[in-house]
Amino acid sequence: MSLEITGKIEKFLDVQKGTSKAGKEWEKQSFIVKTEEDYNNLYCFEVFGDEKVANLTKYQKVGDVVKVTFNVSTNEWKDKYFTSLAAWRIEKASEAVNDVPTVDQPKSDVSTDEDLPF
């Protein structure tokens, strides 16, 4: 299941690096997006992998209004649970709006006045 929100990038957090149990190097970066909602309007997303981390700050800047498509995942470690919002697509909000084709609404012969039978 993927979800999406639109908001403004508030901040980029430091890149985190490490080594997996299998000995492979990894890195991830988190970033904060604030929406226009009144409550629960702050989200901390993360991107995982060298290429995604490099592209994050290459194409996105603080203050950009973006549409973020993401997955929610929860992992267990030593009887503790950690939930993350893994961003897998980030695009400028203006580009996202321009990609949506406009559709003309069909004209209706039905009157919307108060002469309806119900």
Helix content: 10-25%
Q: CATH superfamily name?
A: Nucleic acid-binding proteins
Assigned CATH architecture: Beta Barrel
Order of helices and strands: EEEEHEEH
Number of helices: 2
| Shape descriptor | globular
Question: Would you write up a description of this structure?
Answer:
The chain has about 120 residues and is mainly beta. It has a single domain (about 5-100), classed as Beta Barrel (OB fold (Dihydrolipoamide Acetyltransferase, E2P)), CATH 2.40.50.140. It is about 15% helix and about 50% strand. It has a 5-stranded mixed β-barrel. A hairpin with a 7-residue loop joins strand 3 and strand 4 (about 40-50). Residues about 95-105 have low confidence and may be disordered.
Please specify the SSE layout and strand pairing.
Layout: E1 3-12, E2 16-19, E3 25-34, E4 42-48, H1 50-59, E5 65-77, E6 80-92, H2 93-99
Parallel strand pairs: 4-6
Antiparallel strand pairs: 1-3, 1-5, 2-3, 3-4, 5-6
Nutshell version of this structure?
With 118 residues, the protein is mainly β.
Features:
single chain; 118 residues; mainly beta; OB fold (Dihydrolipoamide Acetyltransferase, E2P); 2 helices; globular
